Amino acid sequence: GDSVTQMEGPVTLSEEAFLTINCTYTATGYPSLFWYVQYPGEGLQLLLKATKADDKGSNKGFEATYRKETTSFHLEKGSVQVSDSAVYFCALTNSGGSNYKLTFGKGTLLTVNP
Amino acid sequence: ETGVTQSPTHLIKTRGQQVTLRCSSQSGHNTVSWYQQALGQGPQFIFQYYREEENGRGNFPPRFSGLQFPNYSSELNVNALELDDSALYLCASSPSAGYNEQFFGPGTRLTVL
Fold first, then answer.
1. Could you tell me how many helices (H) and strands (E) chain B has, helices first?
2. Number of C-beta neighbours around residue A53 at 10 A
3. Phi and psi at residue A38, to the nearest 5°
4. What is the CA radius of gyration of chain B?
5. d(Cα A76, Cα B35) in Å, to the nearest integer?
6. A68 in contact with B at a CB cutoff of 8 Å?
7. Measured between CB atoms, does A21 come within 8 Å of chain B?
8. Are B6 and B20 a contacting pair, CB within 8 Å?
9. How far does the CA of residue B18 sit from the closest CA of chain A (Å)?
10. How far apart are CA A93 and CA B2, in angstroms?
11. Closest residue in chain A to residue B109, using alpha carbons only
12. Which parts of chain A sit beneath pLDDT 70?
């Protein structure tokens, strides 16, 4: 079945540092890929997405490129802020079935210190 | 435009009891999915409802059941609660079953003692 593996956390950075959170996936067909963010005590918010190979999703300074050859969708940000502290989830949906259920990784806790 | 809402926010039950969680989908959305997020884990798909019919189910036992109403709001029912059912339950809606983006509510935190 489909699966998502993402970098184990927690990740602790200083403000303005460069961020990379690795994500790889296993899926048949042509999945769509997502990064969701969860702030403390809240539900999930879509951060960015990419629906086909070589697409780059971007939002709020975060970027991720859909790499089919390496089955990866790594999240990057050039300069993190304290407000970026949250849990980040890599996820996929697969059009192989009749529904678009999301398959998530385990999440990576990011803490940004001033 | 009102987003996805869920009730209650928190709930405490004892083992063996039954619980009902509620979700109101975003305006214009006819598809609702439910996820269970255990502490420190990613959300796991429970099931999806599309136009009042179940449209896919994850690896959860039959004591997890659901409903979707004509206004597309939804309920998740869990019978014979077990300690491992303690989790954050997330509801997500989308404009249709064939739409690959889902919009999440804030979740219901269920604690089973």
1. 0, 11
2. 12
3. -125, 110
4. 13
5. 27
6. no
7. no
8. no
9. 24
10. 25
11. A41
12. 95-99
Report CB contact under 8 Å: B56, A98.
Answer: yes
**Residue A77 corresponds to which tokens in the numbers above?**
């940000």
Residue B35 touches partner A, C-beta closer than 8 Å: yes
Average pLDDT, chain A: 92
Q: Which of B35, B23, B28, B30 is nearest to A44 (CA)?
A: B35
Q: Residue B2 — very low, low, confident or very high, per pLDDT cuts 50/70/90?
A: confident
Quote the minimal CA–CA distance from B44 to chain A in Å: 7
Q: Cβ neighbours of residue B62 under 8 Å, at least 6 residues apart?
A: none
Helix (H, G, I), strand (E, B) or coil at B90: strand
Burial class (CB in 10 A: 0-12, 13-18, 19+), A71: middle
